[in-house]
Design the sequence.
């Protein structure tokens, strides 16, 4: 963690509070500490309540330790008595967190480097995010080179097959006293396209959302221009959480950001809300858009169809990965799927991490439209 001596005096108390929490086995990454101080700066702050809200939003204590967090906040900023931590945590919570003894915690905190202390078990509801999944390391390493590319407006020097760089060529002629050297050429660079992943976190997708978040974390770590949103009844951008290198900490932070886990789904309205925000809509322009959802829209599908048509018009490639397609008997027979099928470039199996990683790594290879494929199957 950053040194207090290198900070402004006003920032030192906030860094000290983060260190206090880490001494008591709260899993806090350096990025979270930076976000905490930035949030305090943005809020003013006008009161201690603003500081507390900034700390809750950025340091993200787990719900079962919220009381302990508030006790440390009052102790540090108000001078209340130091809370009795051993008395507040019951045995079940300690076993579930699997943090070991207090002596071991302090020794780990002294020996760690880079602020990468994390608990042995991170959970969203009762789902384990910490267990490693085969294939995601290779996927992360291959993603950047596997994405489709486009020609950038930026140029780079080249020895052949480029356009004349008139300004630099004239400068060379002047510096050579009128002699005509070899002309200087520039060529437009080729860059990977953006990857936009939209994850359905409604109740019907509960068996798959843990794996989808692991995939999203690997995508953000592997591609410079990957964006990830969750949607159910609300829309949430979780890139700030997924940029944390440690997957356990990243997914725990994402779990704290999203409020509509395992609830209902308003797929059409939330996608329209995404498109209504210019900054978000720009993420889809020229991007490979992958929607991870069963597309079981409740009620009228008119808004879903409208949202998908608008997304398709902006995206380079629009894909829907549904876990229902893992069943060989699956057919896009619902009214919503039939309505959006002509807009989709791909309708693929999203029931496993292997099928998803194989598909995303193949996005650069063109293929027949989803409607043509599924008409042949039907």
Sequence:
């Amino acid at each position: 963690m950053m040194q207090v001596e290198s900070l402004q005096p006003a920032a030192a108390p906030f860094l000290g509070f983060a260190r206090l929490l880490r001494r008591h086995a709260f899993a806090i990454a350096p990025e979270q500490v930076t976000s905490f101080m930035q949030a305090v700066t943005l809020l003013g702050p006008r009161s201690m309540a603003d500081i507390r809200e900034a700390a809750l939003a950025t340091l993200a204590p787990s719900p079962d330790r919220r009381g302990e967090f508030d006790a440390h906040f009052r102790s540090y900023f108000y001078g209340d008595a130091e809370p009795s931590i051993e008395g507040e945590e019951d045995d079940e919570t300690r076993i579930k967190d699997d943090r070991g003894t207090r002596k071991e915690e302090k020794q780990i905190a002294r020996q760690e480097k880079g602020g990468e202390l994390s608990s042995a078990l991170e959970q969203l509801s009762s789902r384990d995010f910490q267990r490693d999944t085969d294939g995601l390391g290779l996927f992360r390493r291959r993603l950047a080179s596997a994405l489709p590319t486009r020609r950038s407006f930026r140029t780079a020097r080249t020895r052949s097959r480029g356009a004349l760089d008139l300004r630099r060529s004239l400068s060379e002629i002047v510096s050579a006293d009128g002699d005509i050297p070899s002309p200087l050429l520039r060529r437009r660079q080729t860059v990977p396209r953006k990857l936009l992943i939209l994850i359905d976190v409604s109740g019907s997708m509960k068996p798959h959302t843990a794996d989808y978040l692991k995939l999203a974390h690997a995508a953000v770590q592997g591609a410079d221009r990957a964006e990830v949103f969750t949607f159910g009844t609300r829309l949430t951008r979780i890139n700030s959480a997924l940029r944390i290198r440690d997957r356990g900490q990243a997914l725990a932070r994402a779990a704290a950001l999203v409020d509509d886990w395992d609830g209902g789904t308003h797929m059409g309205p939330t996608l329209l809300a995404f498109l209504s925000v210019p900054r978000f809509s720009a993420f889809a322009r020229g991007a490979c858009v992958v929607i991870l959802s069963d597309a079981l829209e409740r009620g009228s599908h008119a808004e879903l169809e409208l949202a998908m048509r608008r997304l398709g018009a902006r995206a380079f490639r629009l894909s829907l990965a549904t876990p229902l397609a893992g069943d060989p008997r699956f057919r896009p027979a619902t009214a919503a799927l039939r309505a959006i099928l002509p807009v989709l470039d791909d309708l693929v199996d999203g029931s496993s991490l292997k099928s998803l990683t194989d598909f995303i790594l193949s996005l650069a290879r063109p293929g027949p439209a989803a409607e043509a494929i599924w008409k042949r199957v039907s």
Summary: The two ends are 58 Å apart (CA to CA). The chain has three domains: 4-121, 153-191, 195-377. The longest strand covers residues 149-158.
